[in-house]
Amino acid sequence: MPEGTKVTAAETYGYSAWTITARISAILPDGTPKKYFLKCASEHHGKTMMFGEFTSVTKIHSLIPGLVPAPHGWGKYKTGSPDTYFFLSDFLDMDTAAPDPAQFTARLAELHHKGTSPNGKFGFEVTTCDGKLPHVTEWESSWATFYGKLLRGVLNLDAEVNGVWPELEAAAAQVISGVIPRLLGVLQSEGRSIKPSLIHGDCWEGNIGTLLETGDVVFYDAGSYYAHNEMELGIWRGQQGQSFRAQVYPRSYLRNFEAAEPKDEWDDRNRLYSMKYNLNYSGGHPGNITRQTAYNDMCYLCEKYAPLEGLGKYDSRKDPEATGMHA
Question: Strand (E) positions, 109-182?
């Protein structure tokens, strides 16, 4: 806040599974009333979350002002135990109903087009999070290599919470060693290339709003990194995609950012990308069905791209995309 700002009220606001959130009312030095949004979390994971979100939102705001609430800072509280960290941004009045597909996907594609990696690689300069779980963000020139490490990271976090599932581990190992090199390696072979795009990183409908004053779409709770832009849409296939699962959203997006070649493998890539989000959700919500969904998707892709005797079999009855039944 600017020096001389007077805080007039602070109240708990909103809901977050991993943080404490509040609305701060203040009077700026020139007499203008101002509202801020405050988010807090404790200990080392809280530091990672707050710094990662601040860095992500700062990047997005610098590219497209107004697409996210303007960030003002992050840091550590001077007193208190355990160590507690905060992130401060503008408070915006918004409607959280599903956004207009055309405007939302156009704005998302604009971010992906404009957000260019500073070194031409996939990754990010700091660790960011999806929920409370950290991303593996070390720089890689190969998208297949980067995604393999990202997926392995979330698999390890899921196993820590839910325990080791041998069948899942076997399928995951084959996905990483066989499916990913085939399905994603082709994106950067035989003259093909993909651009490392800045993605929001947790783009489900709970992190999107529509401003009441202007009707503009706004994004928040970012956990960004530079990725294949299609990675962003994997969460729409997952359990979090209650509204974005509707075909109008991906179809509208693809009118703004054309599918990569081979285009006929777009849906299989989307299935592959959804695994990261489903396993991340499982790691944050122990016992959730998303773990079974990710395993079933692994079996599907292994059967199609990297068959291996002894792996589990894909079951269409457990595929939400086939049954239309989502948790």
Answer: 129-130, 133-134
If you ran DSSP here, which 8-state letter would residue 178 be given? I
Q: Which residues of 13-26 are buried (b: 16+ CB within 10 A; e: fewer)?
A: eeeeeebbebebeb
The sheet with strand 208-211 has its strands ordered as 94-95, 208-211, 217-219
141 touches 109 (CB < 8 A):
no
0.85 exceeded by pTM: yes
Q: Which of 13, 76, 78 is nearest to 46 (CA)?
A: 76
Cβ burial, residue 152 (10 Å; 0-12/13-18/19+): middle
CA distance 236 to 226: 18
Beta strands in the chain (DSSP E): 6-12, 20-27, 33-42, 71-76, 84-90, 94-95, 129-130, 133-134, 197-199, 208-211, 217-219, 225-227
pLDDT tens profile 234-264: 999 976 667 899 999 999 999 999 999 999 9
Q: How many Cβ atoms sit within 10 Å of the Cβ of residue 204?
A: 20
Instruction: Report pLDDT for 238.
Output: 75
Tell which residue, 231, 309, 239, 307, has the closest CA to residue 272. 231
Q: First vs last Cα of the chain: how many Å apart?
A: 42
